[in-house]
Amino acid sequence: MLFEAWFFDVYPVPGGMATWWIGEDGARLRLSDPWRPALYVDAAAPGLPLVRRRLEADPRIAEIRLEHRREFWNPAPAPVLRLEVVEPQALGSLARELGGALGPSRLFNADLPLGQRYCYERALYPLARCRIEARGNALRSVESLDSPWTLAPRLPPLRVLELAPADGVPYRLPGTPLDLIARAAGVEERLVAARPLQLLERLRHLLESGDPDLLLTDWGDDLLLPGLVALAGTHGVELPLDREPPHLNPLPLPLPLPPGERRRGEGRRVGQGEGRAAVVAKSGRQAVGGAGRSYLSYGRVLYRGPAYPLRGRWHVDRRASFFYGETGLEGLLETARLARVPVQRMARTTPGTAITSMQLDLAVREGVLVPWKKREPEAFKSGLALLTADKGGLVYRPSPGVHAGVGELDFASMYPAIMVHHNVSPETVNCPCCGGVLVPEDGYRICWQHDGLMRRVLGPLVELRRRLKQAMQTAVGAEREALDRRQTALKWIGVVSFGYLGYHNARFGKIEAHEAITAFGREALLRAKELAEARGFRMLHGLTDCLWLQRRGAGEADYAALAREIGAATGIPVSVEGVYRWIVFCPARILPKTTVPNRFFGVFEDGRTKARGIEFRRDDTPPLVRAM
Ligand SMILES: [Zn+2]
């Protein structure tokens, strides 16, 4: 049978992957795919001859083959053993054993999340429109018919069931009932906790009759879903939260742990509610975004609940999703599609996961091997090199006081633009192939022979964002809002891509790449200053990617001409933020004759105000000040 459908969900099951599809006719269809991923072992690993005999008898391995492939940090191909596993779920345990025997640095493609990897290898992404061939309940072939980079993708209508605490407050004293509000297809109803059996039956009816694609909750991960599952267990009601039929795929039980050892993420919860965490642990569910954990943020210990993903249905907890919170469903879907990450995982992770996944996708599809975890060390740096390299953006100290007739020029998305323009990427900095092009200040070199992953990932991203913003100019209402959410999601990925390079735990992090970018940024700002001064402007202030300039009688058009000139000279687009009627650079509180670089406020010629680093709200502006 050959037909067209949208790719909806994927997760590992015994014997392969379960995939879910939304047909043109609205049917929701489960097809199994006997997909067999492979991991790779360095054929030169010293312990390999000993292990090899055992591998040949290992029932988890379907096929062993010698291949020549290149790995991510090295452009020269080397011999590797390709181990194809009989089913996806066997890959994790095999990788751990081999990692223990040979050392993790000898393994490749060993720790990629299965759902993502399936998308890379099948060239799929969430809600991709596909032509598929099925025989019975098995997927025979699949071909994606459009691209995630489409400006106006055709997406299927999704059925949504919203579930939230009735009074909006999730936490209460133990034993106090928690009424719920359920909303589906515009109909809202209250589910009363004092009558638990009725609540469960009603919820079961909503799930069965409406068969929602998306369960959208507040505090669903942490509280609602574990609580409901426990309640259903107590009352013997079967709650079809998953679409996966239970008889097809019994949930795997967690393996027993050695005495005294605790499963990762099963740490003690901060505050109350340990009972709930125990319920989740017992269900044996494979966590998508990791189990619950406590973490330190700005000196406070915070707790994030365990993820509660569903099978064949999406569960998004609005209170636990960065992308949903910042960019709504449109931004979440945009990111999941571009990054080829299943929606429930994307909802529970950060822009860093998205940018990493985009890099993994390119690597995997081109047959480049991905090392296990991170092992690229910081190359040796002398003390002097550290001194120049660790500077961030260039910062001037403006003279305090009021300045009239000041233009502000901004480099647009400076760091992503630098990565694209100068080909800065973890594997292009100090490449082993061509000697490279010199980076200002740092003395690093950037490959000129190969386009880096960053350029290839961020280039189309920057371009799509430009097109989305362009489309926004003619769109109105909900359509404009949707475009705005999508472009905001892309902006986040761009912003984070820079920080991630400097983060030593990131898979593709490399501090030298991070430093090269800031060096190019400082050079661009200096170059802009020179060009401005050559045209008779005086630079009052400069801050990373912004300049404040002054020239008697200069208007918007003069600043726009200068912006174009700087953009052409540096390769980074520059825009005119505006011309200020007046601007104040604020003095430092301790030394009044100096200024704080990021503290200012001013009024543009068109009446807009802008302030940074001071308490200032536009709503409170007295009419007198606004008229100034
Ligand atoms: Zn090179």
Structure description:
There is one protein chain. The chain has 628 residues and is an alpha+beta fold. The protein has helices spanning 48-57, 90-102, 114-122, 196-210, 220-235, 274-283, 322-339, 343-347, 351-365, 383-389, 414-422, 453-472, 477-501, 511-534, 556-570, 623-627, and strands at residues 2-13, 16-23, 28-33, 38-42, 61-71, 74-85, 107-108, 129-135, 138-144, 160-165, 180-184, 187-191, 214-217, 293-297, 300-304, 314-317, 401-411, 437-438, 445-446, 538-543, 546-550, 574-587, 595-604, 609-612. It is 34% helix and 25% strand. The radius of gyration is 28 Å and the shape is globular. Among the domains are: 38-108, Alpha-Beta Plaits (2-Layer Sandwich), CATH 3.30.70; 388-627, B family DNA polymerase, palm domain (Palm domain of DNA polymerase). The termini are far apart. Mean pLDDT is 84; it is low at 249-291, 295-302 and 375-390. The chain binds zinc ion. Zinc ion (ZN) binds at residues 431, 433-434, 436, 447, 449-450.
Q: Which ligands occur here?
A: zinc ion
**Class of the domain at 388-627, according to the CATH hierarchy?**
Alpha Beta
Strand order of the largest sheet: 20-21-17-22-23-24
Structural class: alpha+beta
The poorly predicted ranges are 249-291, 295-302, 375-390
Shape: globular
Q: Look at the structure and give the mean pLDDT.
A: 84
Provide key terms for this protein.
16 helices, globular, six-stranded antiparallel beta sheet, Alpha-Beta Plaits, five-stranded antiparallel beta sheet, single chain, Palm domain of DNA polymerase, binds zinc ion, alpha+beta, 628 residues
